Structures are given as structure tokens and as C-alpha cells.
Amino acid sequence: xxxxxxxxxxxxxxxxxxxxxxxxxxxxxxxxxxxxxxxxxxxxxxxxxxxxxxxxxxxxxxxxxxxxxxxxxxxxxxxxxxxxxxxxxxxxxxxxxxxxxxxxxxxxxxxxxxxxxxxxxxxxxxxxxxxxxxxxxxxxxxxxxxxxxxxxxxxxxxxxxxxxxxxxxxxxxxxxxxxxxxxxxxxxxxxxxxxxxxxxxxxxxxxxxxxxxxxxxxxxxxxxxxxxxxxxxxxxxxxxxxxxxxxxxxxxxxxxxxxxxxxxxxxxxxxxxxxxxxxxxxxxxxxxxxxxxxxxxxxxxxxxxxxxxxxxxxxxxxxxxxxxxxxxxxxxxxxxxxxxxxxxxxxxxxxxxxxxxxxxxxxxxxxxxxxxxxxxxxxxxxxxxxxxxxxxxxxxxxxxxxxxxxxxxxxxxxxxxxxxxxxxxxxxxxxxxxxxxxxxxxxxxxxxxxxxxxxxxxxxxxxxxxxxxxxxxxxxxxxxxxxxxxxxxxxxxxxxxxxxxxxxxxx
Length: 507
Hints:
Layout: H1 34-38, H2 47-68, H3 77-92, H4 118-126, E1 138-141, E2 150-153, H5 156-177, H6 185-216, H7 228-236, H8 245-258, H9 263-266, H10 269-290, H11 297-322, H12 342-375, H13 378-409, H14 419-444, H15 478-482, E3 494-496
Antiparallel strand pairs: 1-2, 2-3
Helix pairs in contact: 2-3, 3-5, 5-6, 5-10, 6-8, 6-10, 10-11, 11-12, 12-13, 12-14, 13-14
């Protein structure tokens, strides 16, 4: 008669979400009436060719801003993205003429070569603008400007990138305010993956704007790269190519081209928030895995390792890049007028990194403890004690980081304190550790060991949801494009829009 093994199961961890609030300050912009702004650039008599287009642009932008209102919680992320796509289709038309080339009227019988009039054709072609991407100067609040100033950028790609950044902030802010439950976990997971896709699109748009800006100021003939065989001769001459003013001017032009975007776009805030959104979406995955009794400890541990690395490497790396200007600020208020504070971000990242490391160790310890009970195995018991003791220590560090997070957040924004839920999570680890010590003291009497197993390989079940390519709006016809007089187009504007926030009304 076979003897059955003893069985004792330990509770899976309760995942503490406590998402990072990113809504202080809000990414906002000045309103624009495209018809009033662009009317001076239209040829006389061509107003009707662009009237519908300008009306659609103004309406589409207003609808996006309406959907971005943080108080309109009934606007879903799907609806928000659809409005962004519609506005993006209209903005895309400013970049290049319809079809990329001017349309020509069909000709039944083309003239012979000697009957053509090249000068006249060249003159007609010169009157068509090559691009309209710089005709409107958009003013946006710069989230990372340390002096709290707004930013003006004449590039439709940067306008769309700013809209996507504002949309990401809206969805992330809603996620931070909403308690995660079984009812909303799947939708939250989808929304945050969608945010990561939006931000990837924003990064692409910023890169496109950089290339377009660099093309506005091509290098002079003397700025071209010097062949290696000429390099040494150039160095020997006084006033060489390497020390020339033109070389310095080329460097400055390159820096200017890369600095056309606002600080929050230029310092890779989209990448930081993209990593944050994926890490927060993964919470729903881990939470769901912990709620399933049949899910093994090893899978939960692997998911938690991915979270630990995601916060400890990806998010933390972007935080350090974003906050490199923080030492210039004397206090939190000066840090861009309630901007992202260094200690606020670092304490949140540290809390999540330590917390998920503690969960990994708890999973390893609980799995070993279940084997120790089932098989009456002293080695498994010692392994369980080592892992659970270290898990408790790491969890204590996470709780200390959580207290710092709440303290540093107080001057910046409201946060739903994670201290209470973390205390409950710690109690779960302590109960398992007490049971392991009880088993060892009663049966095995083994001395404690500090040796723990390596962390398992990370496993991720999360990826960004690709952002829909907007395409081009059919309202951008050849007539609409040709209605713009290239001689009336304004110069591109990039830079500070105001010395202080108070001088500009941002809606």
C-alpha cells in the first residue's frame, strides 16, 4: 500500500500595483484656428480650395484636446487613439505634396522637343512649395523645462509627437488613479500596451523632425568630410580645417537641428514612459498568474524577474537620463514648477525593483518549502529559509523606499500610498518564513544558510501594441496644396515661447 505525500500549499503573492502618477504638470497647448493662421499664406481666389481642409484640421485638433481632458473618464483609450489617428492623417498632408510630385494635365499630343518651353515650365514648378510642414508654429507646455517655460515648434511631426505624449500622460494618469481589480485588469493591460505603441510612434516622429531640421541647414562645401590622405596636411597648416570657424559652425548647426524639439521630447521622455507603461501593464499579467491555482511558482518568479529588470534597468536608466538637469534646480518648486523630482522618481523605481526581487525570492522559497513539507526533506527546508529570509529583508527595503516615495511625492502630486498594501504583502512572506523555521526547529535542526539559488531567467508576456499608421487625408488634394503661395510661407520657428508660464494662456 503506497503512502501519500503530505501536502501544504502557500498563498501566491498579492501584487501591489501603486502606479507612478505622471500628471503634474499636464501637457497642454494653445488653441489654434487653422483658417485664421493659414489664410495669409493662401493665393488670392483659392480660399475655397482649402476651406474644408482648414475646418477639418481645427475640428480634429479640438476633438483630440477634448478627449485629453483628464475629467472625461468616459473617453476610452480606443476612442482617444482614433481621434489622434484622424488628426495625424490631416497633419501628414503638410509634409509633402499629394503623390509626392506635382500633377500634370493629360495631353493628347505631346509637343516635339524643339516646341517645348523649358523656362516657363521651370517657373511654374518653382511656384509650388516643396513642403508645408513648417507653416504653423505650435506652442506646447514643456514638461521638463527647468524654468517652467513653454515651447514653440514649427513642425507638424513635433505637433503630432506632442499630442501622443499628452495622450500617453492622460492614459497613464488614469491608470494611476484607478484601483486594479479583476473587472478592469484586462482593459488596463490593453490600455497600457496601447500607450507604449503611441510613444514609439512619438519617438519616430521626433527623429523625422530632426532629419527635416538638419536638411534646412545643409553643410557648406568646406564642411564636407576630409579624406584621410589630406587630413595630416590639413593639421600641419595654420588655421587648419579642423580649427576653422566653419567646422564649429557645422557642429552648432547639428546641435540646433537636434534641439528643435521641446525638452520633454528631446530628452526621451517618450521612451521612459513607454518602459513605464509596459512595466505597469505587466502588473496585470503577474496579478492574473497569481490568481490561478494551477500556475507554477517558477512562472510567477520568471515574470517577477522581468519586472525587476524592467524597473531596475530600463526605467531606471531613463530616469537618470531625464533627471540629469535636476541638480541645477535649488528646490522642488524650481524644478520646472512642480516638475518631476529626482528623489520622487528614484524612490518609486527603487520600491518596485526591490519589491519584485522580494517576490522572486518568495516564490523560490515557497516552492522549496512545499517540497520540504511534502517530502520531509531538510535540504529543501534550509533552502526555503534562506530564500524567505532574504525575501523578507528585500521587502523591508521596498517598504522603506515606499515611505520615501510618499514623502517626496507630497510636494509634487497626490499618490495613493502603497505602504498599507506592502505591509500585507510582507506579512505573507513572514508567515511562510515562520512556518519554515518551525519545521526546521521541530524536525531537522539544521543551521541557517545564506546561500540562495540564482534568479531564474526572466519571462515576459508583454509587448507594445503597434500604433496605427494614419496615412493621408483625402482632403489634401493637389488644389489644396497649390493654394499655398510659397512666397508667403513663414520661416520655421523653434524655441522658447515665453519667459514664464503666466504670460501665456495654455488651454
